[in-house]
UniProtKB/TrEMBL annotation:
Record GO biological process: DNA repair; negative regulation of DNA repair; negative regulation of DNA-templated transcription; negative regulation of osteoblast differentiation
Record family assignment: Belongs to the ROX family. NO66 subfamily.
Xref: SUPFAM superfamilies: Clavaminate synthase-like
SMART domains: JmjC
Pfam families linked to this entry: JmjC_2, WHD_RIOX1
Function: Oxygenase that can act as both a histone lysine demethylase and a ribosomal histidine hydroxylase. Specifically demethylates 'Lys-4' (H3K4me) and 'Lys-36' (H3K36me) of histone H3, thereby playing a central role in histone code. Preferentially demethylates trimethylated H3 'Lys-4' (H3K4me3) and monomethylated H3 'Lys-4' (H3K4me1) residues, while it has weaker activity for dimethylated H3 'Lys-36' (H3K36me2). Acts as a regulator of osteoblast differentiation via its interaction with SP7/OSX by demethylating H3K4me and H3K36me, thereby inhibiting SP7/OSX-mediated promoter activation.
Names of required cofactors: Fe(2+)
Catalytic reactions on record: N(6),N(6)-dimethyl-L-lysyl(36)-[histone H3] + 2 2-oxoglutarate + 2 O2 = L-lysyl(36)-[histone H3] + 2 formaldehyde + 2 succinate + 2 CO2; L-histidyl-[protein] + 2-oxoglutarate + O2 = (3S)-3-hydroxy-L-histidyl-[protein] + succinate + CO2; N(6)-methyl-L-lysyl-[protein] + 2-oxoglutarate + O2 = L-lysyl-[protein] + formaldehyde + succinate + CO2
Protein name: Bifunctional lysine-specific demethylase and histidyl-hydroxylase
Keyword Nucleus included in the entry's annotation: yes
Length: 534
């Protein structure tokens, strides 16, 4: 389930019918990470719920440090939490709140410290309404009817029969007649990039990408009863599986060797003979969450008379130390060669006499000296590593990868989108609202823009004009005058605190106003009070 980099339009979700209590206050949810070992219960009633657990987890291994069976209370449903986000002013806090809800009742700090990139985790909630309002089969039907969904580009029809995977995509648009006929014939339907078609999935991912600091993508999978859509495989992303409807049997396997651990590329399809014993085997029910790191092989099938609909949230594709160093080290070598004569001295004339594979067993002391010289020079590279510059380039790439922000009502009202200018009675009215030095402003959201120096110029890259389809748009940026760099940095750093335009560190009032106006007009700034026409 490769969730990243896939294209896709629009759907409105219904509201949840009932409002749940915040999970810290009441209710019960079972979280069953790998190899369950009960560590605590928040409520006595959890015991009986545990007895009813249909999850089968395999016997505990000797590594039980990360095994958990936790219980807590109901959290709000997807519709509730997305509505709640609209009332949280800070985008950072929105991102933290949504992730907290996603993995509730597990505390986020526990998840990141003990389980992230390490273990498969099952959160069993016994709350079929937990994801209501996020995405449904009815939404998929609506998307097929109303959006230009193309087979192969946006939707895959596939089945896995007798150990073989078949993709049965006809050419052209995935109209309901074709898609549902394939489903009826036993094909799973995979909607790539539902965020392009669904406003709620877009909001869900756009908020979470700020939590991860990495692109967040998704796929939706609809599987008919008694079928399996995809062969066993592992992916190159951290995967969160949200069971939206129906039931599905999942089997998850640890990486088979160290080379598959935290894999940077997805695997080919495996046969059943390639697999060992699953580390987690469970039937996901609506409201449940399954997480597994990249490199964990997985397969899933519908067993009974029920269909299954799940959404896979994916993130952290190629976001590793290795990827960072791949960018840093060539630049560090280049800088070292320019700045340090040691890197420009010639190699020993005779080094080929004792170095190379044919001499690898040699005890020649010149070989030892050569290796030591390499180690010393590599260690010195750290002094020349342009770490901040590479971090800026990765941040710039993340800005380009990002979904455009979903604005809260407040952000819409207080940004350029809320200006009362409009066409009325044959002419534009309410024209001319302007910022002044007394206007208080902050960035629209945290993480929507990044200041990057390139080729002696300063550019502000931003997400607000990105497409909901991955990289459909080129990177968007504004050039920032060096005289306004300090002011720009202050605005980026001070979020969510307001700054008076007249307090921006510029040489002149003109510079203050031109920077603030440029950002406001692009939809990058928010004012403390609505702008009015003088
Ligand atoms: Fe997958």
């Amino acid at each position: 389930m490769n969730g990243l980099g896939d294209p896709a339009g629009l759907a409105r979700r219904g509201r949840v019918r009932r409002r749940r209590q915040p999970y810290a206050a009441s209710g019960s949810v079972l979280a069953v990470p790998l190899r369950p070992r009960k560590i605590r219960r928040h409520r006595r009633s959890v015991a009986s719920r545990m007895a009813a657990l249909s999850a089968q987890t395999l016997p505990p291994s000797d590594d039980s440090s990360d095994s958990r069976l936790e219980a807590a209370a109901d959290g709000p449903g997807a519709g509730d939490v997305l509505a709640e986000l609209n009332r949280i002013a800070s985008s950072r806090r929105r991102a933290a709140r949504l992730f907290e809800w996603l993995i509730a009742p597990m505390p986020p700090e526990h998840f990141y410290r003990r389980l992230w990139e390490r273990e498969a985790v099952l959160v069993r909630r016994q709350d079929h309404a937990y994801y209501r309002g996020l995405f449904s089969t009815a939404d998929l039907d609506s998307v097929l009817r109303h959006e230009d969904v193309q087979f192969g580009q946006h939707l895959d029809a596939a089945r896995y029969v007798r150990g073989r995977r078949e993709t049965l995509n006809p050419p052209g648009r995935a109209l309901p007649a074709a898609a549902w006929s394939l489903y009826q014939a036993g094909c799973s339907l995979r909607l790539l990039c539902p965020q392009a078609f669904s406003h709620t999935v877009w909001q869900f991912l756009a908020v979470l990408q700020e939590q991860f600091g990495s692109m967040a993508g998704s796929n939706v999978y609809l599987t008919p009863p008694n079928s399996q859509g995809f062969a066993p495989h592992y992916d190159d992303i951290e995967a969160f599986v949200l069971q939206l409807e129906g039931r599905k049997l999942w089997r998850v396997y640890r990486p088979r060797d160290s080379s598959e651990e935290l894999a940077l590329t997805s695997s080919p399809n495996f046969s059943q003979e390639d697999l060992g014993e699953p580390v987690l085997q469970t039937v996901l029910e609506p409201g449940d969450l399954l997480y597994f790191p990249r490199g964990f092989i997985h397969q899933a099938e519908c067993q009974d008379g029920s269909h299954s609909l799940h959404l896979t949230l994916s993130t952290y594709q190629r976001n590793t130390w290795g990827d960072f160093l791949e960018a840093v080290l060539p630049l560090a070598v280049q800088a070292a060669i320019e700045e340090n004569v040691e890197f420009r001295r010639g190699l020993p004339r005779d080094f080929m006499d004792y170095m190379g594979a044919q001499h690898s067993d040699s005890k020649d002391p010149r070989r030892t000296a050569f290796m030591e010289k390499v180690r010393v020079l590599v260690a010195r590279l750290g002094h020349f590593a342009p770490v901040d510059a590479v971090a800026d380039q990765r941040a710039k790439d993340f800005i380009h990868d990002s979904l455009p922000p979903v604005l809260t009502d407040r952000e819409r009202a207080l940004s350029v989108h809320g200006l009362p200018i409009r066409w009325e009675a044959g002419k534009p009215v309410n024209v001319g609202a302007q910022l002044t030095t007394e206007t208080e402003v902050h960035m629209l959201q945290d993480g929507i823009a990044r200041l990057v120096g390139e080729g002696g110029h300063l550019f502000l890259y931003y997400t607000v004009e990105n497409s909901r389809v991955y990289h459909l748009e080129e990177p968007k940026y504004l050039e920032i005058d060096p005289q306004q760099a300090d002011a720009m940095e202050l605005l980026l750093r001070s979020y969510p605190e307001f700054v008076r335009v007249g307090d921006l560190p510029c040489d002149s009032v003109e510079d203050q106003l031109s920077l603030a106006t440029m950002l406001y007009d692009k939809g990058l700034l928010l004012t403390k009070a609505p702008l009015t026409v003088n």
